[in-house]
């Protein structure tokens, strides 16, 4: 493949513009930026059937359904520039399905899940605030 493609930008003058096949992408699993060849890219296919496999108490499922059904109602700015999306803080002992629930609902709303574990953001209020500012 040619490294440059001929193009006509202004006044029908031919100009050479670079044609680079690499894209910089962010890996949500490793939290790293990577270079990927464009031939390796494909649209992500969300699995909308996952909620049928998730076992939750009805009250929990109803709450999550409300929070994920009409996202526009929860992302509208009441104060200009203060709402950047939804954040759900899940609390519970290990193994009850917090992460699995987040992954399933991420699929349902067709948005990537950026998962942060408490051990990676610090133990003091200052460290946590600094880490969250860097992430968001």
UniProtKB/TrEMBL annotation:
<protein>
    <submittedName>
        <fullName>ATPase AAA</fullName>
    </submittedName>
</protein>
<dbReference type="InterPro" id="IPR027417">
    <property type="entry name" value="P-loop_NTPase"/>
</dbReference>
């Amino acid at each position: 493949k040619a490294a440059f493609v001929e193009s006509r930008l202004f006044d029908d003058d031919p100009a050479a513009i670079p044609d680079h096949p690499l894209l910089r992408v962010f890996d949500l699993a490793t939290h790293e930026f990577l270079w990927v060849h464009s031939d390796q890219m494909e649209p992500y296919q969300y699995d909308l059937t996952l909620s049928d496999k998730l076992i939750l108490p009805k009250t929990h499922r109803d709450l999550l359904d409300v929070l994920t059904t009409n996202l526009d109602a929860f992302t509208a700015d009441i104060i200009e520039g203060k709402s950047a999306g939804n954040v759900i803080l899940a609390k519970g002992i290990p193994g009850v399905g917090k992460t699995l629930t987040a992954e399933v609902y991420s699929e349902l709303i067709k948005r990537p899940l950026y998962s942060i574990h408490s051990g990676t953001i610090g133990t003091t209020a200052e460290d946590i605030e600094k880490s969250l500012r860097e992430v968001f």
